[in-house]
Amino acid sequence: MAKSPRDISCLGLEELKVLLVQALEENARLKAENLELREEIARLKGLKGRPKLRPSGMEQASEARDKSGRRKGRRGGKRSKLSISKTRIVKPDSVPEGARFKGYEDFIVQDIIIRPHTVLYRRERWLLPSGETVVAALPKEAASHFGPELRRFVLSQYHQGQVRARGEINASPGLSLCPSAALRKGLHTPVCAPSRALRTNKNPAPSDAFISPRALTIPRLFSQLRDLGIDISRRQIVRLLNEKQDAFREEASEVLRTGLAAASWITVDDTGARHKAKNGYCTHIGNDHFAWFATTTSKSRINFLELLRAGRKDYVINAAALDYMRDHKLPKATISLLTADTEQRFADEKAYLAYLNKLGLDKLKVNPDPVRIATEAALWGVITDEGHFDGTLVVSDGAGQFRLAGHALCWVHAERLIHKLDTFCEAHARAKKRIRGRIWWFYDDLKAYRQAPDARRARELSRRFDSIFSTITGFATLDRLLERLRARKKELLAVLERPEIPLHTNGSENDIRCQVTRRKISGGTRSDEGRDNRDAFLSLMKTCAKQMISFWDYPGARLDIPGAAHIPPLPQLIRQAAPT
């Protein structure tokens, strides 16, 4: 039975004010929910969504400036970075009698030469007295009909230029049509329901019904190459992108293994991703020296721990796994079932789950779920067995799946919670403004502390934190939020003990933006091979940028292009850059 409404006739003025504020807050929440639903409907119809809110600006306001007021990091000279390919002496048309030569005045012109280069290999054939025919072997660079330079160009255009591979599902407004809208446009097959041919492996020629005008990328790349004189088909372009990429994928996996082993901290983030016409998630793991991406169907803690295994498939119950179970309140009776041996190892998930079922854990209907906790613990056992996370801190936006043993919170996300609060009277607006001002000031002092850590200064900052987040403002929603943030003091002030860690996850958010761009252009991948290649090359591209390596030079070195710059393995560079 519904609860009867309160009788407000007997309430005083202050009680009515409180009741009104509660009603306004509930109204604001419902409005925000309604806006999200309307935005989703507009996206599905191919219309524009609502404009995004501006960021709070706390990080930008606290950036250090020099005395002149300019931000640090000015550009250097260009000429010192250029390699001169050709020098031409230009003489005047006529020089008057008596003129003296005074040297040269340099003028640099940068240009690029893009033209096809086709080589005909005429392989000698010799007939032996025995009747056998001997044919000269092809050189290494002639392994296929498309040379390494063309392969490098296609890889660069696709992964760095954010173009779309045919067969990917487009999520742009040009393709987000409902069936009725598609039929109104005269399309026999609705865009949101691919035809039978597209659901098979026959790969028919792309139709205008499945290609957005602003994301027509493989056809554009195909047209560009044909205009340049390259005789290639769309299917051959897709093969250049997807086939024989095992070495690149293995190096990307090794980037994660080395990065985790060498890191004292990592930042993490995730975003939505589409694969095989289903919603999924792309997780980013990285720091100042490496970046790694993986697309999966889940964003649970089990999924995150599986990614941190860095390619291993086994499960381990060791001392670290048992400690994890105790920390997550698994009953002692259940833990005792798993401690028959000092250490147990299982080859894969199937073997481990069979072991848990044999113990009867799957039949226990209790909270927390013993199978989930035991699985997380065994994955944590693998990570510690690998030697990762020995003092490593995870810096995240506060999502539950990222909260492991050593965890720090992003200050930008924490302050954003206050920034997004709705106020409904002048007193609440003033309270919010005062608290935000104190937090900005405190954040600025934390950044200064990272540059010059000091024990006395750390104690002072800890006291200031308590003073700010224990403030009673009279704005009930703000007071509850401050209390919640104060409960996370250890994670927000992890920088006092570990000054080397960042105060935010801006690095992860900047890195994962390329995946967001890819999602907006392409929508998603259709094959596991395409998904793995996309994640691997995004990882390699971002790692190259962090190591100050040109992504044009990187595939040139790996494809053994003559004259290409030598680039050591990326894991080796990560290991060398790691703090000792």
Structure, explained:
This protein has 580 residues and is α/β, with parallel strands linked by helices. The protein has a domain of 89 residues. 44% of the residues lie in helices and 8% in strands. The chain has 21 helices and ten strands. A hairpin with a 4-residue loop joins strand 4 and strand 5. Helix 8 packs parallel to helix 12, helix 14 packs antiparallel against helix 15 and helix 15 packs antiparallel against helix 16. The N and C termini lie far apart (66 Å).
Write a concise synopsis of the structure shown:
The protein has about 575 residues and is α/β, with parallel strands linked by helices. Helix content is about 45%, strand content about 10%. It has a domain of about 90 residues.
The average pLDDT is 83
Q: Number of helix segments? A: 21
Number of strands: 10
- Report low-confidence residues grouped into runs of 5 or more: 163-216
Helix vs. strand class:
alpha/beta
Radius of gyration computed on alpha carbons: 30 Å
Coarse shape: globular
Largest sheet, in brief, is: 6 strands, mixed
Ends: how far apart?
66 Å
**What level of helicity do the residues show?**
40-55%
Tell me the strand percentage band: 5-15%
Blueprint of the fold:
Layout: H1 13-45, H2 58-61, E1 125-127, E2 133-135, H3 148-160, H4 179-184, H5 217-227, H6 234-242, H7 246-262, E3 265-275, E4 278-286, E5 291-296, H8 301-308, E6 315-317, H9 319-327, H10 332-337, E7 344-346, H11 349-359, H12 370-385, E8 393-396, E9 407-409, H13 411-419, H14 426-451, H15 455-469, H16 476-486, H17 489-492, H18 506-522, E10 524-525, H19 528-546, H20 553-558, H21 570-577
Parallel strand pairs: 3-8, 3-10, 8-9
Antiparallel strand pairs: 1-2, 3-4, 4-5, 6-7
